[in-house]
Amino acid sequence: MERPELLNTDCECSTTNTEKLCVSIVPIFNHLQPFQLNEIMEKVHSSSYKKGELIFQEGRQSDTLYIVHTGKVKIYRLSEGGKEHLVSLLLPGDFTGEYALFNESTHQSFAQAVADTKVCKIQRHDFQAFLTKYPAISLNMLTEFSQRLNQSENQRAHFAVENVDTRLALYLVELAQSDNYTDILELPMTRIDLASYLGTTAETISRRMADLETRGFIKQISSKRIKVLDYDGLSIV
Q1: Radius of gyration over every alpha carbon of the chain, rounded to an integer in angstroms
Q2: Which tens digits make up the pLDDT trace of 9-29?
Q3: CATH C-level class of 17-154
Q4: Is the keyword DNA-binding assigned to this protein (predicted)?
Q5: Which residues have a Cβ under 8 Å from the Cβ of 232 and sit 6 or more positions away?
Q6: Which residue from 22, 102, 214, 216 puts its CA 20 to 30 A from 16's CA?
């Protein structure tokens, strides 16, 4: 797979209530008072990306916090052979680039809009000033880092010791947990991206979904909608 070129067609927009809304939905900021959000908002600018456009790419300088306001962004890496490995999928309120806020570095992955997307950006020097002025943001960042580290360690553990059936079942359970154990799951990614995330192929995902359905754990409503019939059984596959 060839490395895509970074597209420079993003639209820089003036600070508006859109940016305020963008900042306010992020967990590390949503505890702040309105006047504090207004102060941060003054340092935020937004960019719009069409589906398929790259937001940043591996090897480029990393000095910005990226917050997804609308749309969807996938973070992925490419192997030496060009195979894409999905690292995460970002939805509105999610952010990336946080590690670069503390150290000068380059991006280790690619970020691509998988739908028309608007992203809010805060530069490193502005963000560091806010950390000094509002220590609570630092504590929230540490909480976020801890959660991401735990998620990453769980994912590595699943990959190391679990088969594809179990990895898929655990993913579905975790997806349901994040939405208060809803019976109807809306997959946030395509089967191809899900396969990349779970370290397998789209064909294997389709077969394993069919197997889980045959065993009475789920019912496939459509390619992206699944009804969970047996949470307990799905948790111990």
Answers
A1: 19
A2: 444 444 456 666 788 888 778
A3: mainly beta
A4: yes
A5: none
A6: 102
Question: CATH 2.60.120.10 occupies which residues in the chain?
Answer: 17-154
What pTM did the predictor assign? 0.76
With CA atoms as reference, report the closest residue to 190 among 114, 132, 85. 114
Q: What is the pLDDT of residues 66-98, one digit of tens each?
A: 999 999 999 999 988 888 999 999 999 888 988
Measure the CA–CA gap between 167 and 43, rounded to whole angstroms: 41
**Of residues 161, 166, 143, the one with CA closest to residue 235:** 166
Q: Which of 13, 16, 9, 14 is nearest to 49 (CA)?
A: 9
Cβ contacts of 33 within 8 Å, gap of 6 or more: none
The residue among 123, 113, 66 whose CA lies nearest residue 94 is 66
CATH of span 162-235: 1.10.10.10
Contact 181, 231 (CB under 8 A): yes
Burial annotation 222-235 (CB, 10 A radius, 16+ → b, else e)? eeeebebeeeeebe
In order, the DSSP letters of 15-60 are --HHHHHHHHTSTTTTTS-HHHHHHHHTT-EEEEE-TT-EEE-TTS
| Separation between Cα atoms, residue 10 and residue 54, nearest integer Å | 9
Q: Which of 9, 11, 101 is nearest to 53 (CA)?
A: 9
